[in-house]
Amino acid sequence: MTSFTSSPAATALANLDPGTTGMAYVPPARARALFRKGTVASTAGWSTGFAQANLIAVPSDWAYDVLLFAQRNPRACPVLDVTDAGSPRTELAPGADLRTDLPAYRVWRDGELIDEPTEVRRLWRPDLVAFLIGCSFTFDGALRQVGIPPRHVEEGRNISMYVTNRQCRPAERLKGPLVVTMRPVPSDLVATAVRVTAGMPTLHGAPVHVGDPSGLGIKDLDRPDFGTAVTIRDGEVPVFWACGTTPQAAVMASRPPFALTHAPGHMLVTDVPDAVYRYD
Amino acid sequence: MTSFTSSPAATALANLDPGTTGMAYVPPARARALFRKGTVASTAGWSTGFAQANLIAVPSDWAYDVLLFAQRNPRACPVLDVTDAGSPRTELAPGADLRTDLPAYRVWRDGELIDEPTEVRRLWRPDLVAFLIGCSFTFDGALRQVGIPPRHVEEGRNISMYVTNRQCRPAERLKGPLVVTMRPVPSDLVATAVRVTAGMPTLHGAPVHVGDPSGLGIKDLDRPDFGTAVTIRDGEVPVFWACGTTPQAAVMASRPPFALTHAPGHMLVTDVPDAVYRYD
């Protein structure tokens, strides 16, 4: 991947309605600098117009398992970049340090969550391979533009994420359930939400499920497995998109000896304009 | 991937203009049976409405290199499926045997082409991992529908493929140049060709280059590196798409100890309707 011009993002930003939060206008490099210095926040609503990414880093002898798992489950795990072993650099954000520039991390040993630090410099082993995976926060700006302001951004919360009863297609030693995000959408805008997000297949694309949480095995929308619950208003339908937290569910189910991930909702803010990933 | 209904493909077939060759109406399973019994032919123009795929199989200790190379060069190497080690089965065509059902294969040792057999049963090692990669033959039907009948199909030839002066992004031990296919397109239909193929990003997507072969380091369009030359008429522009033969060029440049591939232009005809891969 070569360098990207910022003009598509600049255009997108110029078209934003004024209801956007202040975080929307923070440039990606500035957002990362804040996180590097210790700011801890969900990146939902930050740096609108730029792609965000999930992180999972594993020892190199597990790298093929993760890459194949992603290839076999592309709705949940659209791979945007893979680092060379040991390198904390990604082409998605050339100035970023993956060890420090996300707001919060999770540390996993044998599938158990053992820590949630704000930087992982000392844990970044020379054999770690990091995968940057597309994030649906990226299309929240596009949804806002078509009249579907994401409720979690409106309410200043992390998004709601749920572990479903759908199993991913396994790959080598990796298996686990599909994780989804949920956004409440007015009934008359569900088709619009489908159309807009279908045009971004490498950012999870169209919803995997619309309405009826029980069809995904979700018992109570008010009790998400990751993130926070949001208000669902009368006339709104819960719409579910595949989520890049799915690899963390696979870590829990498959127990690799070591893994580092972002904390759910606390993403890498990249320098790549989201227009780069649009096919519509 | 689950089973596919054939209705989108059936619709596409019903809409085909009558200029299509007889091969266009051969169902995929019948095409594969013919190839299994010894028919050797370029699959260009065969089984219109169904996706075709490039094949590269390598020992499992090279599988990560290939998968990462594909992830880093998605225009040339859009991965549609990866087999488990030793298995000759793919979800793209549940009844197919990858060892026999392509019209022709290439056998590579240390980066040297040593044979071009019509089946590879005895060469299919227990540690072989096969990658099925999208093929631009798949969108030839869509181009025909918008008034751009592919010249190589009209002339009953294999397509023209060229090794370019553009280097792919390396991955582990794999490196090599981008290979492209070329289709002559009337000047007033170039934009249409771009639009139609851009909607199929996992089948190489939009052209990588339009006109001026020297810009890709191609000295003579009449002397392709793979396949056969086709006629370019007055008022037509050569249009270049990334090609799934690129992994073979990487094999030549990177010299893995062993690899099996399809022979250029002699693809796996899958059971997957091409509509499955359309985003437009």
TrEMBL record, chains A, B:
GO terms for molecular function: lyase activity. Keywords: Lyase. Transmembrane segments: none annotated. InterPro entries: D-Glu_cyclase (IPR009906), Putative_hydro-lyase (IPR038021), UPF0317 (IPR016938). Its EC number is 4.2.1.-. The keyword Lyase applies. It is an enzyme of class 4 (lyase). Pfam families: D-Glu_cyclase. NCBIfam families: PRK05463.1. HAMAP family: Hydro_lyase. PANTHER family: D-GLUTAMATE CYCLASE, MITOCHONDRIAL (PTHR32022). This is Putative hydro-lyase HEB94_008113. It comes from Actinopolymorpha pittospori.
